Amino acid sequence: MRVLVVTILILIPPTFLTFNRVEALKTRIRVEGRGLFIPSSRFLKPASLGFDTMVADLYWLKTVQYIGDDFWFRKGYPQLFDLVNLVTDMDPRFEYAYEVGGIILSVYGGRVDESIRILEKGYRQRLGYWEIPFFLGFNYFYYLGDYRKAALYLTEASRLPRSPKYLPKLAAKLLAKAGDPETAIAFLTEVLKNMDDERMRKEIEERIKEVMVERDIQHLERAIKVYRERFGRPPEGLEDLVSKGIIDRIPPEPFGGYYYIDKETGEVKSSVKKERLKIYKKRVRR
Amino acid sequence: MRELAIAFNTFRECIRDRILYNLLIFAILIIGLSGILSTLSIGEQVRIILNIGLAAIEIFGVMMAIFLGIGLVYKEIDRRTIYTILSKPIKRYQFLVGKFSGLLFTLLVNLIIMTAGLVGVVYLMGWHVNSTFFYCLWLIFMEFVLITSLALLFSCFSTPTLSAIFTLSFFVIGHLTEDIKFFGSRSENPFLQKASTILYYILPNLENFNIKALVIDTIVRGLYFEDVSAGVGLKLILFSTLYGLFYTAIIFLLAVIIFEKRDFK
Amino acid sequence: MIRTEGLTKVFTVGFRGRKVRALEGLTLEVKRGEIFGFLGPNGAGKTTTIKILTGLLYPTEGRAWIMGREIGDVSVKERMGFLPENPSFYEYLTGLEFLNFYGQLLKIPYDERLHRIGELFSLVGLEGAEELQLRRYSKGMIQRIGIAQALLNNPEVVILDEPMSGLDPLGRKEIRDLILRLRDEGKTVFFSTHILSDVEMICDRVAILVKGRLKAVGPLDELLGGYVKSIEVTVRDPGGVFEEVKDLAERVIRREDLLLISLKDEETVERVIEVVRERKGRIHSIVPQRLSLEEYFVKMQEEG
Fold it and tell me: What's the pLDDT tens digit per position in C168-192?
């Protein structure tokens, strides 16, 4: 009997060692670009023997884990769509999956079309949550620059229970003053209000600052135009705009940098964000 | 080799058990069905066949391991056949070795039959499998080995119903240990964090034997497993196998300890 | 051949861990070549003792030896045969497969094994049932094949737990004959029973177990002979005997001129005989009434 107990004790360390070894090897294989095994819902649905929603929950847990994995974050979540699609196939009323999947796919993954596909799938279920059309509207507005569609979805969202009072106004603004950065800021602030995830909030705050930069640059460029009309030449620097009384002050750069006039192109630039934000530009990965 | 006589008799017991045939017939049906289902798909047919087929082999094999394993020792005690067996010149641990290996042999034979069915369906669809396929089956068999040892352990002190519940729970949890660890690590509660880490290491990690996705991907691309990540694939097989063997040995020895101490009232 | 020393078994039952003392300091010796009957009412601890001897239970205290080796030694089992109470075997096997399997466990070489199995089938009267699955065997057939498996290795010691239970009178007689035959072959037979008639015809010695304690060991006649319940005297009464003896006797039954007189002891028998002689009566028979085993058990339980 003592022999057995001792043998068991001897066997424990190699069990752990091989366990760790397998773990390391699995990570290496994963790092080299292979993903999760995601079964097809066509197979899983019958195989779950009526426990569809429970299986959906299990895969949702896997999805949350996938989202939390920094490795897949850096890769831009290549399988997130498949995961969320499976979860919502198994349980089509899983509102939170559509919402979170949709936001993360576009905001982090840059996978706007996948985000829209998931959100529209959820929207077709008519679950009565205003968030789904709201984020659809956000996608159309912010990434695709389709203001008409964005306004349409916002109007839909505003009709659903518990939607913020601000939505109809925002929709109207979208239709009227589409290219206005102030509209974008208002929209994004509304998005920000509906985020609780810290990392997401940071991401959206970043976007707001980017739009603020765009707003400031548009503002400064209009001032330069006035300056050129008045004096027949471009200003030496932005300070000239203030000293000649065209603007009251140079707006603070929201990232903590400063604005300046590029000597070569004559465009206004931010010291932090060299690239100018094009709201119309599709920010789709690959 | 008295163990061999026990093992052979266990094999005979299993193949004369109706449960085995029911499960085998269902497994073969589903594997056959995978061929039909795959024709519904456009492209990637072999992927669907392999997905369904390997899942069926694994699930039905595990069910065989559980439903035959839970009765392995219990039935002998319940039907009092153990009285005369143990009055023969055989040590108790030899009896367990015989029982365990007899069931493993049964499972191996069934695995071969189900595999033949799946390979047949794949060939009928005009595809073929390569050696990569057998690495996957090997690890599936390692999972059977581990599950069988658990069923045997429970069978030594518990009724079949309870044993089935215990073993099934281990099967399910064994595939979710990584999730347990993940949720523990996300928890604010230090006790939960500790507990989840301990569970992660103590519970059998059955995902270590799950390379189905990797293997199917490799086969569909017409590659060989030996090529996967410059030999990492083969190392994974080796260490997963070792892990399975060590873990099984521990569980089996626990079963021996319990069985040696038991009174047969 | 079999020796036990202070064997004690305490079972723990139920969730509350209640202790049940099934066997209390059993010390016993069975000699080579004898048929030893192990008697006791149900629940006396017979099966517990046998299970300890065959290694199915571990004694709480005490030790036991078979053929000079401590129980638990596997080599003992090579020369021992065992039939449990109400045996049950692998019902999916045929009789032949079953005995062949057990023969393998005993490492009997193939040819010898087949020969031996053939012999045993005829010995226990199961010819023709070789290819039948055990699930189709009747209870009596199971008992017989159980005996066959106990004899496979031509054992020196045979332990049988209630070998006659569940058998019809003919079956019981066959088993009794078989046990006698085993003794004639020089084997030691240790068997348990709770039925006296099984024992009294064949046993050399018996042990009586009541409530886990050993009450008596020895030849059955000696044990029960010590307890004469009453003496029944039958006499022909030409007249006057009845009146004189009715006060001496416990009970007198008169049918025409015949008297059936139950007496307590031999002294009163003497006096009754005197009376009969005086009255010119005739004595037909004097029969001492011994205790039956059942009454003996009752007496033991009252004493214990």
Answer: 888 888 889 999 999 999 999 999 9
Chain A contacts of B212, Cβ < 8 Å?
Answer: 37
Which residues of chain B have a CB within 8 Å of the CB of C136?
A: none
Q: Is B264's Cβ below 8 Å from some Cβ in A?
A: no
- Of the CA atoms within 13 Å of residue A172, those in its CB half-sphere come to 5
B226 in A contact zone (CB under 8 Å): no
Task: Kindly report, residue by residue over C44-54, the tens digit of the pLDDT.
Answer: 899 999 999 99
Phi, psi of B88 (to 5 degrees): -85, 160
Percent of the residues in chain B that have a pLDDT greater than 70, as a whole number: 97
What sign has the CA pseudo-torsion A1, A15, B244, B172?
A: positive
More confident residue, B113 or B52: B113
Helix pair angle (A147-159, A167-176), 10° resolution: 160
Distance CA C148, CA B223 (A): 61
Residue C89: predicted pLDDT: 93
Distance, first Cα to last Cα, chain A: 64
Residues on chain B bordering chain C, Cβ-to-Cβ distance under 8 angstroms:
2, 5-6, 8-9, 12-13, 16-17, 79-91, 261, 263-265
The domain segmentation of chain A, as residue ranges, is 1-25, 203-270
Residue C58, token pair as written in the block: 């571990």
Among B162, B156, B167, residue whose Cα is nearest residue B82 = B156
User: Are B214 and A34 an interchain contact pair (Cβ–Cβ within 8 Å)?
Assistant: yes
Read off the pLDDT band of A281 (50, 70, 90).
Answer: very low
Domain-by-domain residue ranges, chain C? 2-224, 228-303
pLDDT tier at A145, thresholds 50, 70, 90? confident
CA–CA dist B201, A15 (Å, integer): 10
Provide the CATH topology of domain C228-303: Alpha-Beta Plaits (3.30.70)
**pLDDT of amino acid B214:** 79
Instruction: Say if CB A209 and CB A217 are below 8 A apart.
Output: no
> What's the N-to-C CA distance of chain B in angstroms?
28
8 A C-beta contact, residue C222 and residue C270: no
DSSP state of C105: H
Of A6, A15, A55, A66, which to mutate for an interface test with B (greatest number of B Cβ within 10 Å)? A15
User: A88: pLDDT confidence band, cut at 50, 70 and 90?
Assistant: very high
Least CB-CB distance to A18: which of B51, B239, B261? B239
Q: What are the structure tokens assigned to A249, written together?
A: 């002050």
Q: Are strands C35-39 and C205-210 parallel, antiparallel or unpaired?
A: parallel
Which chain B residues are within 8 Å of C102, Cβ to Cβ? 84, 88
Closest by alpha carbon to B136, among B53, B27, B32? Answer: B53
From chain B, pick out residues whose CB is under 8 angstroms from the CB of C145.
Answer: none
pLDDT of residue B202: 92
Instruction: Flag whether residue B180 sits within 8 Å of chain A, measured between CB atoms.
Output: no
User: Between chains, do B265 and C57 touch, taking CB under 8 Å as contact?
Assistant: yes
Are A and C touching by the rule of 3+ CB pairs within 8 Å? no
The CATH class that applies to domain C2-224 reads alpha beta
Q: What mean pLDDT do residues C6-31 have?
A: 90
Measure CB to CB from residue C56 to each of B79, B89, B264 and give the nearest one.
B264
pLDDT above 90 covers a percentage of chain A that reads 26
So what's the pLDDT on residue C253? 87
